[in-house]
Amino acid sequence: MGSSQSRTIEGNTTIDRLKRYSRADLKSPLKSAFGRQQQQQQQQQPQTKDSVAGTVGHGGTMKLTESTGASDYETPIYETSHRAAALPPTPPRLQSQSMPPSTVPCEYRTGKTLGSGTYAIVKEAIHVHTGRYYACKVINKRLMEGREHMVRNEIAVLKRVSKGHKNVVTLHDYFETAHNLYLVFDLCTGGELFDRICAKGNYYEADAAELVRTIFEAVKYIHDSGIVHRDLKPENLLFRTQAEEADIMIADFGLSRVMEEEKLNKLTEICGTPGYMAPEIFKKTGHGKPVDVWAMGVITYFLLAGYTPFDRDSQQQEMEAIIAGDYKFEPQEYWQNVSETAKDFVRTCLTVDPAQRPTAGEALRHKWLADAEPHFVPDPTRTDGAPADLLPHVKKAFDAKQLWRKATSTIKAVNRMASLAHVDHHALMRENVNKYKEESARENLDVVNITYQQKNTDDISASDHADLVSKIAEVSLEAKDKKVEAGEDK
């Protein structure tokens, strides 16, 4: 996307990009791109470097040229930005076979706002033909200028893991309108992990072990898929429904990365949620999948005591404690009802040296998770040897201030130097972030067309290669057939 504040259209009229347009003034963001493509096909002229709609800037981000009559968003930002620069010009005889993005009426309707993040809001959505409910992440395109790679990366990661594990959230669909990007996920209505625990009447060490085992199995699946999550924390662990036996889901893959061969590919940027970040992230020595195991150690500690092991008065002190591995199982009253086996599991996960830290598979083989009989400390107030209830102390630690939420300001400094170099631009974006998010919330999908980019690669589900428009048509027909069979439709 261009970095200038304005562009010239017909009549040489300058329009401020920050101005809100009425629907009558707003043109489809891809129509002009289609028009030029069709004109090029008719003339059968190869596409040259100068004619490419986007150029690759620093860090691989896409920067669109400011040509007269061009759309601000001709190239959907979820497409790989390197493709235009890396691929040779398409031969003229093949250009007539290229498929432009498909623009169709939207099959979703959005409802109430469920939450708000740094660059996006999350709204409840329904598919109009199937009646199924989803969570829809709405991202204002203006807020993603210079950060397009973040969305492309999140989609690339989710394509790998979606529908592969019941405890990993699925990306069902993604599309764009003139102003926003939409990512359609599972709707998890069961609430966050710790809220569910506090609502229980009792909570035992065996319950904590079962939760950790389930989450670690999902982490192992993510790692086996060549992904490192990098932001595992209680807030990103959601229950699918409010049912007692509902699945717990790992969500929010915004900071995740693809890591095919970890020995040859180390990440060095500082990112994550401070209280759950591993020492090697702060030390910038290179990190990978072991950071997720460290985060699971912090989560386990939290599930057993109600507070995090490195909680300090400042983030500087917290960082120093993490780098040194400085934590204790104190105060004693919070840990007297926790078994030594559970403590050993936490120590193992919180190994400072990532090379000595267990993998997700090795953590699952630890006796706290692998033994058939649960580990626990008997309740001293009972004579039947029943396990002690951890809930009173856990809830006490989880006080009204909700201490674990102090670590939720996620660091998204993917490139600190680049951020400093564009400090004025980012300051402007921060001033307008609430305005843009409000605009995203007001968009009415009843009256807009959406754009799907035609893909030659696998679709979201590895087992389903139908394009998204065809899938919408298929589920619509299936729904109608079911109504006919039930006598509800003729």
UniProtKB/TrEMBL annotation:
Superkingdom classification of source: Eukaryota
Composition bias, Low complexity: 37-47
Alphabetical keyword list: ATP-binding, Kinase, Nucleotide-binding, Serine/threonine-protein kinase, Transferase
Regions of compositional bias (Polar residues) in chain numbering: 1-15
Compositional bias of kind Basic and acidic residues: 16-28
Sequence positions that bind ATP: K137
Pfam families registered for this protein in UniProt: Pkinase
Transmembrane segments: none
Residue stretches making up the Protein kinase domain: 108-369
Residue stretches in coiled coil: none
Start and end residues of each stretch annotated as Disordered: 1-71, 84-107
CDD domains per UniProt: STKc_CAMK
A GO molecular-function annotation: protein serine/threonine kinase activity
Entry's family note: Belongs to the protein kinase superfamily.
Designated name of the protein: Protein kinase domain-containing protein
